[in-house]
Design a protein that fits this description.
Layout: E1 18-19, E2 23-24, H1 25-39, E3 41-44, E4 51-54, H2 56-62, H3 65-73, H4 78-86, H5 88-94, E5 96-101, E6 110-121, E7 127-137, E8 142-150
Antiparallel strand pairs: 1-2, 3-4, 5-6, 6-7, 7-8
């Protein structure tokens, strides 16, 4: 993992990360929420046949500061992170299961937490790997929970 260089990620006067160029992280986040709100629904993985959905709560996690920080620490920009987030459902369709483990918090409603990886090309031509976290619940449903960008 590349190191996080604070100087490469400027902050506004309130201490929030900003994006060099076309607006603040807040604006990128708002745009991602609009796109994701239209993308809520169920997606089928073409490899396993499993289905997972994106809900309002999923959107909150996908656009969270924690997920963004992970992508930035892996050498990606906020713009690239939010671009990938808006494609989370489509990326899940072609992702391969990388791991499966019990919920680290021991939630009684969660059967396991699965991690899926899929390589893809960003609009700027950069190659990346989307690392998706999907929670499988006891009622049989699976929810796309988080996404972080990783180098391929």
């Amino acid at each position: 993992m590349d190191s996080f260089e604070e100087s490469e990620h400027p902050r506004d006067r309130n201490g929030r990360f900003t994006f060099k160029g076309n607006g603040s992280i807040g604006k990128l986040r708002e745009k991602a929420v609009c796109i994701l709100s239209e993308s809520k629904g169920t997606y089928m993985n073409s490899i396993s046949g499993e289905t997972a959905y994106i809900s309002g709560r999923s959107i909150d996690k996908l656009i969270s500061g924690k997920a963004l920080k992970k992508s930035i620490a892996n050498g990606f920009t906020a713009r690239e992170h939010f671009e990938a987030v808006t494609r989370a459902g489509k990326l899940f369709k072609t992702a391969r299961l990388a791991s499966s483990a019990p919920d680290k918090n021991g939630s009684p409603d969660i059967v396991c937490v699965k991690r899926y990886d899929t390589p893809f090309k960003m609009r700027n031509g950069k190659l990346a790997k989307a690392h998706l976290t999907v929670k499988e619940y006891k009622n049989g449903e699976m929810k796309i929970y988080s996404l972080e960008l990783m180098k391929r």
